[in-house]
Amino acid sequence: AEAEGKLTEVATYERLIAQHERELQRLVSLNTEYVKLKADVSRAQSVYNLLLDKLTEATLKENEILNTSFVQIVEPASPPRRPISPLSPKIVVVGAIASTVLGIALAFLLEYVETLRMEIGEEKVQEVPLA
Questions:
Q1: Which long-range contacts (CB under 8 A, 24 or more apart) does 56-59 make?
Q2: Integer Cα distance of 48 and 61 in angstroms
Q3: H/E element holding 44?
Q4: Between the CA atoms of 58, 59, 60 and 63, what dihedral angle is there, to the nearest 10 degrees?
């Protein structure tokens, strides 16, 4: 009877050991998931801190811009009384006249330079003694 009681006790202990081993396996898998979730929380916290810093910086810049006014409105803008047309025809005519005058002046200048070259060349030819 005593042996039978010991066998029952051993069987109970074996069931408890098996139950605890299953619980241990479940805890190991939960620990792996916990480590992964903890890393995710850490990354999310870093991103949150970065975004919070950016928001603070943007708010400070906005307040700085609102508090310092470099531009003062001297007189409010008003629409023109009559429409203003572009001076395109006038600009084209002035450009054509100016380019014609500059072209003629450049032609005279180039002709003058060529004449000077020819005169200098003739003087050098006259200085060369004939043997």
A1: none
A2: 20
A3: helix 2-67
A4: 120
CA distance 131 to 118: 24
- Between CA 71 and CA 2 the distance in angstroms is 102
Instruction: Please name the residue that has the structure tokens 């620990």.
Output: 31
Region of residue 95 (phi > 0: left; psi between -120 and 50: alpha; otherwise: beta): alpha
Continuous H helices in 68-87: none
| Tally of residues, the chain | 131
The model's pTM: 0.36
pLDDT less than 50: residues of the chain: none
